[in-house]
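Annotated sample (chain length 53).
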Amino acid sequence: MGGLNRAEPDVVLLCGRSELGSEAAAEILGVAPGTVGSRLSRARARLRASVDA
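Output written by the structure step:
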């Protein structure tokens, strides 16, 4: 997950690999559910761009 910033891998792992919802991930990370959604969206875009490159 080289192209991601520091916060994004945690969200990808919690929501993607662990299949937690954004509210559960937010509670674990100590952030708002909307923040989890934003981070996940940015992470997906970065990963997509790195695959397409």
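Annotation: The chain has a mean pLDDT of 90.
Annotation: The radius of gyration is 11 Å.
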